[in-house]
Amino acid sequence: MQHDTILGPVAARAEALNDGYRNHAAIAVLRRALSDPAVGRIALVSSFGAESVVLLHMISVLDRSTPVLFIDTQMLFAETLAYQAEVAAQLGLSDVRTIRARPEALAAHDPDRLLHKADTDACCALRKTEPLERALEPFDAWITGRKRFQGQTRSHLDFFENEGDKRLKVNPLAHWRPDDVQDYMINNRLPRHPLVAKGYPSIGCAPCTSRVKDGEDPRAGRWRGQDKEECGIHFVDGKLVRGPVADDRPQEHKEPPMNVIVTDTGFAADDRGEEFQPPEETGAAALDLGSDADVSALIGRLEGVEAIRIAFPAFSDGRGFTMARRLRMMGFTGRLRAAGHVIADQYAMARRAGFDEVEITPELARRQPWEQWQARADWRAHDYQSRLRGAG
Length: 392
Ligand code: SF4
Prior knowledge:
- By secondary structure, this protein is of the alpha/beta class.
- It is 33% helix and 14% strand.
- It folds into two domains: 4-252, Rossmann fold, CATH 3.40.50.620; 260-389, Aldolase class I (TIM Barrel).
- It contains 15 helices and 14 strands.
- A hairpin with a 2-residue loop joins strand 9 (260-263) and strand 10 (266-269).
- The radius of gyration is 23 Å and the shape is elongated.
- The structure holds iron/sulfur cluster.
- Iron/sulfur cluster binds next to helix 8.
């Protein structure tokens, strides 16, 4: 990894920083994070939610030019947008960057803004995770306001975490209790998010945040009624965490050692990957195409090709669907596989574009059980093979 080459392995740096700062206060951890060359280029990621103002204030005291990444999912409460502007101005934050999903990704995957009703994981991935991953690309570390008391998935939180061997995640408030947050806001006379007084102690997107009753967990209003705790932005032990996901697939399909494929009947370990070889090596019973491959170069060269696999480097990258449609229009009747970042919400589209199957990583399969794929729009009357059989 490039980051490792410059700064040293992320895991070793996280461990050393935790050893050195185990008993320090939040502000000392933050000061170190902002100044230590071992941490590298750093940004604060803030939702401008109920407790965000604590870290924003600390940043304003230590270095107000620190980049602040504000993820605007375009589903936020109007009060959050107003509060964001108010806090940034009051604290003199000079580098607040608003992060949004790409318009073309929204148009492709959530044109009617209803994806959150069908699949909150896919919606969070589209509106939060992917835009944030893009925004974090130039950084070696990011600061979050996560705290141990906020739930089981956070109960062992350290100040410094290794995020997938790629970058450091810094949690200066990891050890804070709810009273610490309140005391800090009172002592520093910080402005409150207006929705807190209206019964929202934890604030996310408007469709996915509800009021919390007395005695309920402060985060009970987030994705109420769903088995979901996190928005997908956070990783634990290098793995993306979207809250506990029930895995009720048959035992033989759990933890597959390689990639898994999604077919009409569910997940299966990929025992066919070796068929896919670069054409120059095989003379071409199967082809691997990158997302930027020129499909027209295959005109007249598809004779004898039995299978084609097309790479999807990001789920927001729709070029593979266009390539599949073109291949089918060119008369390719063999097996067509989409491989990489394809989400359940795209399965129907993939089938209609001409794909027969989707190849995803075991991690992606765990986050999106088969039921999520199965529950998509009924593609069967419209997919390529049905049309080929004259059924569509
Ligand atoms: S919190 Fe809800 S509306 Fe916001 S991105 Fe996630 S699913 Fe979509």
